Structure formats: structure tokens, C-alpha cells
Amino acid sequence: YVEEDSEELGEAGEASQTEIVSEENKSLIWTLLKQVRPGMDLSKVVLPTFILETRSFLDKLSDYYYHADFLSEAALEENAYNRMKKVVKWYLSGFYKKPK
User: Fold this and answer.
1) Is 6 inside a domain boundary?
2) Is residue 3 part of a domain?
3) 5 lies in some domain
4) In angstroms, how far is CA 36 from the centroid of its own chain?
5) How many domains is the chain partitioned into structurally?
6) CB atoms within 10 A of CB 29
7) Which of 52, 67, 74, 83 has the highest CB neighbour count under 10 A?
8) 20-28 CB contacts, 8 Å cutoff, 24+ apart
9) Would you say residue 4 lies in a domain?
10) In angstroms, what CA-CA distances link 95 with 26, 32, 69?
11) Which PANTHER family does this UniProt record tie to the protein (predicted)?
12) Could you tell me the CA-to-CA distances from 23 to 77, 80, 96 in Å, in that order?
């Protein structure tokens, strides 16, 4: 792990965090929407996984290790309460990046 001096974080909803839907995906989305009827049980609709999350499982797991320095600090902590706070800080730090 190499610590960076500064890190650029964008605001939620910025253009850099949005993605334009390709024509191929638009047709797939329209096909799915045409299948949905009023009063239909939505749990029966099957969505392809790439619609729900475009990143791989390994890529999502790597978010938690982006701030490994927080976990290293927790390992050095003597007080159990402060150690637990640092572990929670490390765990929650993986959620700050919005997936593309």
C-alpha cells in the first residue's frame, strides 16, 4: 500500500459519476420494461447481472482494501474499544466510492 498525499473525491451526482447508457443496453431495458404489467409481482422479473452491477466481485472487494492503513492502525491499538472503532472506520471507508 502506498499512501497518497491527497485524494480527489467528487460530489454525489456529478457528471464524472454517471455513465451514458449504450444503445444495446437501452433496447434491453425497454424489453424488460415492456414485460412489466400493472399489479405484477416484480420479484418474478429476472434482471441480467450486468444491469445491476457492472463491476466484478473482485473489483468490489478491492474497495475495502483501498484504505488498508486504517486496518494497520487498528492492529496497533491497545484499547479494545478504540481498536473496534478503527476497524469500523476501515470497513465504512470502502463505501465512499460510488460504483461507475
Assistant:
1) no
2) no
3) no
4) 27
5) 1
6) 13
7) 67
8) 25/51
9) no
10) 28, 29, 16
11) OXYSTEROL-BINDING PROTEIN-RELATED (PTHR10972), OXYSTEROL-BINDING PROTEIN-RELATED PROTEIN 8 (PTHR10972:SF216)
12) 52, 53, 30
- In this predicted model, what pLDDT tens digit does every residue of 2-52 receive, in sequence order? 666 676 666 665 555 556 666 666 777 787 787 788 888 888 777 766 666
The residue length of the chain stands at: 100
Amino acid at 75: A
Question: Which region, left, alpha or beta, applies to residue 39 given φ > 0 means left and ψ of -120 to 50 means alpha?
Answer: left
Nearest to 4 by CA among 60, 55, 62, 68: 68
Structural domain harbouring 71: 14-94
Q: Is 83 exposed, middle or buried (0-12, 13-18, 19+ CB in 10 A)?
A: middle
- The pLDDT value recorded for residue 83 is 95
What are the tens digits of pLDDT across the range 51-74? 666 777 787 777 777 788 888 999
